Amino acid sequence: MHELSIAQSVVEIASRHAGGRRVTRIYLKVGHLRQVVPSALAFSFELVSQGTPVEAAELDLEEVPAAGMCRVCGAESRLESFPLRCAACGGLDIELTSGEELYVESLELEEHPQETGS
Amino acid sequence: MHRTAVKKVVLEGVLDANDALAQANRQKFDEAGTYVVNMMSSPGAGKTSLLEHTLERMRRKLRLGVLEGDVQTTLDADRLARFHVPLVQVNTDPGFGGECHLDANMVRSGLPELPLSEIDALIIENVGNLVCPAEFKVGEDARVMVYAITEGEDKPLKYPLMFRSADLVLVNKMDLLEHLDFDLEQFLGYLDAVNPGVGRIFTSARTGRGLDEWCSWLENRAARARAVQ
């Protein structure tokens, strides 16, 4: 369950960037080649966000497809499964261009309107 | 009360904090001239038995040290204590009922107990788990995976992250090959599918097969690290 550590880190990052405001949504990018189980991450997130500015925020997890460039023929391929193989020439010497992401892309923060005085 | 939402771009890696600590660990190892192996496997693949044999064979040739990671107990550390090499045990239990892996911070917490400048090669025995340890760098030079043939042929495809990140795979418990329906060729095919051409040594802690080769691998790597330093 490394999702617990990942969730904890997401909460820390979001809290730090929130600057005291309440976080309503967290956009997280997860590469296809990562072994992150979304349901386990959602469960862990609920657990570790309690009592933080991130509590009750929606976790918006977007999977990034894996893609790579063939070092032999230069073609770009979408990589669905192993072996990671060039769709054009069948070569295995692939330089990954995406699919290993794991980062907090952005946050949605609640902002109180400016007090206009009473 | 009326509230408006604002969006803030963050673009921060979830593992950045861990990676920075791993980098700091790595710097300490490099300064001390210590070569560091992160040894990973499922529970029961034979990491500790291989380590016992490694210490037995190598302790007069190479100054070895061990950092033991376990969720609970000091059983592994107790097994290795008789070799009288610098040894520290890190229990991951204080986390959420026991983390399933070592991270850079846990490894860092064990370092004050180890005389790094007197250690040529430090072996970090990670928590037995085929998924989680692969995500967390700890400052290692190389990742060595121990894979027991009793685990079946298909695991590289099911757990590609760890197999992909390995620099060397010790294909262990080879003495059992004749008793199992294990298709070695198929396993190696799957291994090459996720990590083409990765180094592999066929080992058995019971018969001693491959242990010379593994020990020379370790000795050569450690010597090279010293030379660079």
Task: Describe the model.
The complex is a heterodimer of chains A (118) and B (229). Chain A has 118 residues and is an alpha+beta fold. Chain A has a domain at 3-66 and 97-109: hypothetical protein PF0899 fold (2-Layer Sandwich), CATH 3.30.2320. Chain A has helices at residues 3-18, 38-49; strands at 23-31, 58-64, 66-70, 76-79, 94-98, 102-111. In chain A, β1 (23-31), α2 (38-49) and β2 (58-64) form a beta-alpha-beta unit. The radius of gyration of chain A is 19 Å and the shape is elongated. The relative contact order of chain A is 0.25. Chain B has 229 residues and is an alpha/beta fold. Chain B has a single domain (16-228), classed as Rossmann fold. Chain B has helices at residues 16-32, 47-58, 75-80, 104-110, 155-158, 160-165, 184-194, 211-228; strands spanning 4-13, 35-40, 64-70, 87-91, 121-125, 142-148, 168-172, 199-202. Chain B has a seven-stranded parallel β-sheet, with helices on both faces. In chain B, β7, α7 (184-194) and β8 form a beta-alpha-beta unit. At the A-B interface, α1, β1 and β6 of A face β1, α6 and α7 of B.
